[in-house]
Amino acid sequence: MPDKIRGTALFLQLARNPDNLDELSRNETVLGALARVLREDWRKHSELATNIIYIFFCFSTYTQFHEIIHHFRVGALCVEVLDDELKKFNLWTSEFEKKRRTEPKEILEKTQSRIQKSSRLQEQLLRVCIYLLLNIAEDPKIEVKMINKGIINKLVAVLPRKNSELLILVVTFLKKLSIYKENVELLKESRVVELISDLIPNDNEELLYVSLRFLLNLTFDSYQLRSNILRLLPKLVALLGNENQRDIALCLLYHLSMDYRSRGAFTYTDAIPATMKLILDCPSEKVYLELASLAINLAGNRRNAQLIAEGHGLRLLFKRAFHFRDSMLLKIIRNISSHEGSTKELFIDFLGELAEAIVNIKEDEFVVECIGILANITVKDLDYRLIVEEFNLLPFIQRKLKPESQTEDDIVLEVVILIGTLALDDNCATLLAESGVIQCLIQLLNAKQEDDEIVCQIVYVFYQMIFHEATRRVIIAETGAPAYLVDLMHDKNSAIRKVCHQTLDIIAEFDAEWAAKIQRVKFQWHNSQWLDMVESEPAGFPGDDYDSQFMFEDEGFGPFIHDSDILEHPDLVYGAYPEQQQQTGGVSDESFEQDGGYPDGLGFGAPDMYPGVAAGLGGREYHPGLGPGGYYPRGFGGAHPVNGELDDDDDDVIYRPGNPHLSAVM
After folding, report:
1. What are 364-378's pLDDT values in tens digits?
2. Cis bond leading into 542, ω under 30°?
């Protein structure tokens, strides 16, 4: 065995020189002998195994020599060595734990010293095995074979070690494997996040960096895995003070802040003060993208937004944003302005700057954020008309609403939202209506009818303006807005339908003519199935003698039961009560009262229990007291009449005695 160790050590010296690798690769006898010795004797001495695997590792650093490693199946041997050494280490550990309970301190110290020495030799073997596997894993097919042999669990089992060089290799390998979703699913089942958390922070900058990169790969996965990494939030926030790890820490924090459920956790760390300090002290004109993106996400949480805006935070953000024309900072401010509460009142001091920027600045990215911020400032008793007139916003609004202006949809949408905010003020809404903004919105509605978001916001503007008497009169009498709202009542977008119905309900309360039109449209939509059925029938149906001789040739009564009183046809009742027919030839008043009302054969129950479920009459409902027209067709209204009136939770359905089949929706 010593001769083998010495011989392999000499070959290793040759292989460590890259100039000798080509010559060694041609000597198949030597390589075959090395592979055979490794296969037979690697369990006998770890140094022998380390020397031989190291020789093949030197070949693995160059892609053109990978075929040699595949030919001698060295990769499979390395996986086997890795598995066996991990089992051996677990056995050492368990034996030491058993001796700790019984053996004296001196023996324990010797045992621990021996284990540590063996572990150092073992870690050298593990390091060269993992490095070789990492090199040949650049071939996806080889990597899949390693996954099938359980390489992930073996690498995770090495993470509790303290050898930094070994850990760098292990975490680098895991980082490479975590690119693929299938491997991430396997990593979820292990304690990898918990084990990696022990490496953060770390004095070894390289190990710390590769650990953060590995966690960054994991944050691309599901919320479940990100929530596990969220436990490291205080450690990651602390890394913002480390210039070497700041960029990767910002990326990690940004990914964690993408889930709105996780943003609240940042409130209880130093993330907000640290982020604000980095923004305000940023040496470049534009704030770094990762830093600004993190702040934008954090500002989406109400409590975080309050922390950012408190003190002089909001003023400093405004000052830097307008000085450098940084639209990313305005996105942060816009998220802050979106929260209800006292935070909105802080923006009153900046209304002039925002309005002036909207009119004068030509950069679309900057302007769209200014419009969005101004649209979010919904403060009670604020004189919006004064702002519009003082900064001459009306021509800007009219110009951007014209379809021929070729304005970007983002700006158009924000302008429409701004109009909805301005319409909260009665005086400003009147000014907008008198200036022709409503007509511009209708033209825009025609041009952008495929854009649901713009359509929904335009309908919301009509909804806001309909509350004011002056604008309501203009909308109803001078524009075609109600007609467009009627057309949109049954739009596929639920939000549009909801706002349309609410707006039309208000219009119907103040205008009788439109109330009738709206009622008729709702009626037609509610009864569309029945109306289609009626329209598909031949002319003259029902009520004339259309083909009655073919339908009821022998009976001699009309084609439909509801054309006459049901009690005039006792032969229908006889079929349901054959015994009574034989005895009395009819149904007596006594039997009618004893049976609780209508005969069961007709599908009626007792009148005092449930009025008229007529299963035996073609799915219609009969209601006593309504006369011959008291049949109510199922599926057209869905309510039950009580004294001629129908009522349910969704729609009010009124019985119309003129046509027993129709129900009107109010």
Report:
1. 999 999 999 999 999
2. yes
